Amino acid sequence: MTSFTTPWTAEQVTHLNDYQQSGRIHPFTCGQRDQHPNNEGVLVATENGWHCPADGCDYTQDWAHAFMAASPPPPDPRDFMAKVRAENQRGHEALQQLLFATEFRIPCPEAADPDRSDSGPVLQPEPLIVQKVTANWADRFPDGWLILNPNLQPGDHVWTGDGWVYRGNLHIGVIYRWTRDEAIAEAQRLATEETRRYETWVAEQRAAARREQP
Ligand SMILES: [Zn+2]
What we know:
Elements: E1 3-5, H1 10-22, E2 44-46, E3 49-51, E4 60-61, E5 63-65, H2 66-70, H3 77-100, E6 103-106, E7 128-132, E8 145-149, E9 157-159, E10 164-166, H4 172-175, H5 180-212
Antiparallel strand pairs: 1-5, 2-3, 3-4, 6-7, 7-8, 8-9, 9-10
The structure holds zinc ion.
């Protein structure tokens, strides 16, 4: 194995120390390690050569393997596998969170608003809410989900499949008629419709306000 001696450049020193810490090779250690049994004496590279980090130890070494200074150590394949496992684990946790979620918010697209001034607020309806059946009704509708529109007054309106109806007027089985996947898909479709409805409503409000002005 080719070796080379001091002095070393700053870049070579960086590579040498990276190798020492990489776990890819057995690191150079102090030749006087028996004098400081509590410090392993993993040598530290400087431009003047290796030094021992142990307190009071004056051990130095002026040569290193050439390959250690030529380039950074290659990545450890065990690090790569650990990273893959960590990412799989995160993906798994995210999926579990989705499966255990009892509420999803489905955003509505921003409304077209040609009259909007630069400083005016963006017109956008509140997100539609997809919600799992509450504990009171979980026995009867264990997989039941509802689709709620918080933009309609008075109070909450839920989607029956035919229209938005005040939930107080509906049978519980109609309110929670959806499975989770059905409710999410339906709410995504409804979100676009909701923005169109909202645009019309805003236009009507503005027209009414103009009529009321003296
Ligand atoms: Zn030492």
